[in-house]
Amino acid sequence: MTRIDDVARLAGVSTATVSRALRGLPTVSAATRHRVLAAAEHLEYAVSPSASRLAGGRTGTVAVVVPRITRWFFSTVVEAVEESLHQSGYDLLLHNLGGRRQMRQRVLQTAGLHKRVDAIMLVATPLRVSDLTALGRLDLPGVTISSGTVVPGWPCVRIDDVAAARTATRHLLDLGHRRIAHISGDPDDELAFTTHLDRRRGYQEALRAAGLPLDPSLDVESQFTIDGGTRATEELLRRGDPPTAIFAACDEMAMGAVSALRDAGLRIPQDVSVIGIDDHDLAGVLGLTTIAQPAAEQGLLAARVLLDPLRGLLDAQAGSAAVATTDGGSATRGGSATGADAGPPPVAGGGEPAGRSVILPTRLVVRASTGPPRAD
Amino acid sequence: MTRIDDVARLAGVSTATVSRALRGLPTVSAATRHRVLAAAEHLEYAVSPSASRLAGGRTGTVAVVVPRITRWFFSTVVEAVEESLHQSGYDLLLHNLGGRRQMRQRVLQTAGLHKRVDAIMLVATPLRVSDLTALGRLDLPGVTISSGTVVPGWPCVRIDDVAAARTATRHLLDLGHRRIAHISGDPDDELAFTTHLDRRRGYQEALRAAGLPLDPSLDVESQFTIDGGTRATEELLRRGDPPTAIFAACDEMAMGAVSALRDAGLRIPQDVSVIGIDDHDLAGVLGLTTIAQPAAEQGLLAARVLLDPLRGLLDAQAGSAAVATTDGGSATRGGSATGADAGPPPVAGGGEPAGRSVILPTRLVVRASTGPPRAD
DNA sequence: CTGAAAGCGCTTACAG
DNA sequence: CTGAAAGCGCTTACAG
Q: Per the record's keyword annotation, is DNA-binding included, yes or no (chains A, B) (predicted)?
């Protein structure tokens, strides 16, 4: 393995100068820089991250924590974040909680992050007080994605979940539905992020605004998965007097609902309409009406919000290219409400720097799974 | 930040002893170990990975390279691998090629891996000769997943793609189909892994065995995605005289095909049968007949094959627990053919240690998307 | 079983 | 703009 002093010797300079030249620091003459780069290339030199990190006091690594990488939203976010991080020269340390009860603590409270990363991104990660304490002790910059994950002092990139749910429910109301069920996240689930609470609130607000009573028998809790949606729907049908429409808290639940309804011999949307939230890759194939949320954009923006303050801390070696400008102009900064819904602005969480927090818009996508209720 | 000498001072021993005790080395007396552990806990000490890696000459990190983390197979593999690695105390450095033309080179041939990891896992990563040269220079242990990715000297965990395709095609033949189309991977795609070549071979072998001619107009190339399946099917229909059945090289393509057929007003399976390979999470919801392949198991086995030789090199600190035994006994080692198909054994690639290579079985899962052709 | 000391390969004030 | 030297926080022979 060639080391920095091999390069220094060949270029006829000190290792300090090699270090500076390779990182693109401005205090190196053009001639020297050229010689150093040529020597490094000739020797196929690559810096040792371990040594560089120890000496420099930075890890060049960002931890990304997701509940389940296999779910559409999280894999889409991670793909966008990975590209952003690598473009900026950062490594991505992936933590997948994977539904294991003890994993969240292991990641957040033990050596999972300690001295390992320069910054943290939590995606829809459920947090207890003890987790917040542990994160505080780490004293690292961070960002969260999803309204369900709030860390004091960290910006949050998200959609307006209450508004999205209100829009979904209103779509069903506008079609003439009155018996509208909601299937949502299970609060007993160790990995339940609180997003489902916001979405239920939107559902309830829309019903109330329409002058409809809240029927607890139409509100079923289950997990944010295909199976969860199937089980919730089966439970709903078991209760008798089925709803004419189901609003599922995410597309995967909605797909599970579609499956259960079909198995029960019910037609969609003639017998039961179904709407979700996400605009999953396969929503189109299934003809699922949904509230689209921009997953990749949330990842991209979160990465930028996280990296911007770190910029310049890391060497320019991996490419000093700025993150591509993909903002799209659709982001609303500062916490004002946006999106398909024109309801009241979301309440800002306590203490986070709203200036860097972002709420991205959602939009109703009507497909074949929703229609008016039967006339009878 | 507390350092190792803080712990040493409190425990009244040298830093060398702290280092040994914390890593669970056997050459420490029980009493000393206890004092050290107590001191470390009291000070909330966590080892500095950078320092440890520099001094120890190991990174404790494994690179995992996937084409697209958003695709079912890859996210499922990564989830299994992530759990395995973290259980063994390794960090997972994720590289997502993401369809970008230059990414593969950037990851494999530049500082993406150099001095950064102890081992490499390539999942369905297309490799050119120059990539192989670069990997050889890295001189690291590695493992690949998928028949499309073969690195000399590295074991490979995979299914028998030829057999899987043969079984899929034979299922359609057994139902009475004679005009069977195949939609498969695009060889022009920079990220095309050669898996689609194996699957096409199985398709052709099954047709030939049934005494049917190969009709090039029934063989359409496209990408391994939902959109790819849709486009390929549209192309197929455009050619006129549509097939009575479509064998798609993966479930995502099959789902795209389902979408295109529906849009064309064709019924499934009455007008056209559809079969894929994977048993994607949503295959059940869509009623898709498929050849199931064990994605998580392939990830788990690949992680084990990779970590086994490394065992003991890393400290026991992160938990000396062995990887859970989830082999299931279904794995066949040594290259003999298994699975739903009883055809000839797959040809072993040149030079890889077949002893550690594994071929996992696949199985036909019949759902609603396949049936006999119409009588007319 | 334990310790003193060298060394891992860089980066960073500091001085010039 | 450049270099000499200290130091980042560990691990590892080596010696006992």
A: yes
